[in-house]
Structure formats: structure tokens, C-alpha cells
Amino acid sequence: MNFTAQDIAEFLQGEVDGDGSVAVNNVSRIEEGKPGTLSFLANPKYEHHIYTTNSSIVLVNKDFKAAKEVKATLIRVEDAYQALAQLLEMYEQSKPQKVGIEEPSFVSKSATIGDKIYVGAFAYIGSNVKIGDNVKIYPHTYIGDNVIIGDNTILNSGVKVYENCKIGKDCIVHSGSVIGADGFGFAPSSANDYKKVPQVGNVILEDHVEIGANTCVDRATMGSTIIRKGVKLDNLIQVAHNVEIGENTVIASQTGIAGSSKVGEHCMFGGQVGIAGHLSIADEVKIAAQSGIGRNIKKKGEVLQGSPAFEFGPYQKSYVLFKNLPKMREQIMDLEKQVKKLEEEK
């Protein structure tokens, strides 16, 4: 299906700069642009591509000022990246939607199923499960007893949701993720081994949560592990028992959060961040990749880096010194030689 620049601008409440009748039927990266496709420019470091791209239409921010001629028709919007997200969402919704229960699959007679749902082949839905409207459960997905799933949620192929867990509305859980496996609870015994502590709690994913592929969110020992509204977790993340992650926090791949730690709202964690157990992280905290957190972070909006992590600015200054340690060592040894020589000459 073709869309003109004018059509797209009206949908996005943007302004056409160029030929409003030019049409596109696909999207492409600005550096790989092809005729008949739409691209976007949000990061200034990619600006040089806008002067050479063959894309027919490019989304740009309203304040973009071209340094030279641009061949493509521009659509000026408040936020080009957000506008692209709107277009891609519209595109996804325009695709044919799967509906119905495929065979072979198992749906317990005691399960409550909403309208317009899709259950893929080899899926398993346990006893007393409650599933809302427009839910999509792709093949080889397991849903344990007493699970609740809200409207418009998508569980991709191979997702496992253990018993008693709750998933809200408009959530997405990607392939291979496990929601509600036992927390890592073992008590040392007199026999010098470890006795398993039963994990009798659950996991709660609130509305608009997205869980990346092969991410694990463990059930609580007692009570709930809670992922609050709007949280986005990347692939390959471990969230331990009784952790709570605040609203609209985003966490990148390979991060691990140990048991009973509480993460605030609107936080941003880079990849491979490690959070020790029983800690509190304030709202709007930013933690750089590969940082280790072993203490409470009480200051709202603090930016941290390093392992153990400390304030971003001092870390950067310290890192400059760290990189120069070999050179400084040579300088100190040279000074020692000069001092020794001067002492010998006395």
C-alpha cells in the first residue's frame, strides 16, 4: 500500500517540506535509503546521510536546518523518532491478525478465554487461567495454573509463565523468557549442604511491560516480584526473587538484579550492570554499562559508572588517571633514578 507524504504528514500532524504527492510503500535506514521508502533523521551524527540518501521521504525534527540541498521530501515533526514509532505501530496493526485456537494445543476446561484470542499449536493453558481479549499466545508457550493475562498482551513462541503469576494489559513477552521460575533460595544446613527454601510467591507484570528474549523474572519467596507499569527489559536479563522495578524504567541486556532490591521509576541501566541484593535505587538514576552497584543509591537522578560504581564525573577523571598509570610509573621510576644520582653526587 502506498502512502503520500501529505497522507503521512496529516497522520503525524507534521509539515511537508517538498513534494507532498511523493509516495512510499516501505521504510529504510537513511544510509541505505531507496526510492519509494521512508527514512528518519533523529541523531545529528547521521545528518550527512540526508544529503545523499535515495529515500523518497525523510522524517526530521521541526528545528532541522539543512546545510545544503536535500533531494528527499521532508516531513517535519516534533520528534522524528517518536513519529517513526507511530508509523511502524500503524504498519504492524495493519497486518492480518491471527485468531483462533490451533491444534494440537491444550486449553483447560476451567480456563476463561476472552474474545478474538490466538493460541498457537502445542501451547498449554492450565487450570483456572484467565485470559483477556485480543491476547496472542504463540506456539510452544506454557501457561501454568491460575495465571491471569490482561487484554492485548502477546506471549511469543516458547514463553513459560509459571503458576499464579499475573500479566497486565498490552504487555509483550518475547521468546524463551521465563516468568515465575523459583527464586534462588537455599539455606545452609548442618550437613554442610543447602536445603531448598520453597518459593511460594509469584510475579506481577503490570500494564505496558515488555520483556526481552531469554529474560528470567523469578517468583518471590513470599509475596510478589513486581515489574511496574511501562518497564522495558532487554534480552538476557535476570531479575531475582522479590525485586521491584519502578514505572517506566528501562534496562539493557545482561543486567542482573539480586533478590529483594528495589529499583525506582524512570531509571536507565546500561548492559551488564550488576545490582547486589537488598538495595534501593532512587528514581531517575542512570547506570553506565558494566557497572557494579553494592550500596544504596539515595540521590534522585544520580549518574553512576564503574565497579564498584561511583559518580560519573569523578569516574571519568579517575579513568584518565588509570589509563596513564603505566606512564606515571615510568616517570616515578625515572625521578627515583635522578634523586638517587643526585644523592650519590653529594
UniProtKB/TrEMBL annotation:
<dbReference type="GO" id="GO:0103118">
    <property type="term" value="F:UDP-3-O-[(3R)-3-hydroxyacyl]-glucosamine N-acyltransferase activity"/>
</dbReference>
<dbReference type="GO" id="GO:0009245">
    <property type="term" value="P:lipid A biosynthetic process"/>
</dbReference>
<keyword id="KW-0808">Transferase</keyword>
<comment type="subunit">
    <text>Homotrimer.</text>
</comment>
<dbReference type="GO" id="GO:0016410">
    <property type="term" value="F:N-acyltransferase activity"/>
</dbReference>
<dbReference type="Pfam" id="PF04613">
    <property type="entry name" value="LpxD"/>
</dbReference>
<dbReference type="Pfam" id="PF25087">
    <property type="entry name" value="GMPPB_C"/>
</dbReference>
<dbReference type="GO" id="GO:0016020">
    <property type="term" value="C:membrane"/>
</dbReference>
<dbReference type="InterPro" id="IPR007691">
    <property type="entry name" value="LpxD"/>
</dbReference>
<dbReference type="InterPro" id="IPR011004">
    <property type="entry name" value="Trimer_LpxA-like_sf"/>
</dbReference>
<keyword id="KW-0441">Lipid A biosynthesis</keyword>
<feature type="domain" description="UDP-3-O-[3-hydroxymyristoyl] glucosamine N-acyltransferase non-repeat region">
    <location>
        <begin position="22"/>
        <end position="89"/>
    </location>
</feature>
<keyword id="KW-0443">Lipid metabolism</keyword>
<keyword id="KW-0444">Lipid biosynthesis</keyword>
<dbReference type="InterPro" id="IPR001451">
    <property type="entry name" value="Hexapep"/>
</dbReference>
<dbReference type="Pfam" id="PF00132">
    <property type="entry name" value="Hexapep"/>
</dbReference>
<comment type="similarity">
    <text>Belongs to the transferase hexapeptide repeat family. LpxD subfamily.</text>
</comment>
<feature type="active site" description="Proton acceptor">
    <location>
        <position position="241"/>
    </location>
</feature>
<comment type="pathway">
    <text>Bacterial outer membrane biogenesis; LPS lipid A biosynthesis.</text>
</comment>
<keyword id="KW-0677">Repeat</keyword>
<protein>
    <recommendedName>
        <fullName>UDP-3-O-acylglucosamine N-acyltransferase</fullName>
        <ecNumber>2.3.1.191</ecNumber>
    </recommendedName>
</protein>
<keyword id="KW-0012">Acyltransferase</keyword>
<dbReference type="InterPro" id="IPR056729">
    <property type="entry name" value="GMPPB_C"/>
</dbReference>
<feature type="domain" description="Mannose-1-phosphate guanyltransferase C-terminal">
    <location>
        <begin position="102"/>
        <end position="182"/>
    </location>
</feature>
<dbReference type="InterPro" id="IPR020573">
    <property type="entry name" value="UDP_GlcNAc_AcTrfase_non-rep"/>
</dbReference>
<comment type="function">
    <text>Catalyzes the N-acylation of UDP-3-O-acylglucosamine using 3-hydroxyacyl-ACP as the acyl donor. Is involved in the biosynthesis of lipid A, a phosphorylated glycolipid that anchors the lipopolysaccharide to the outer membrane of the cell.</text>
</comment>
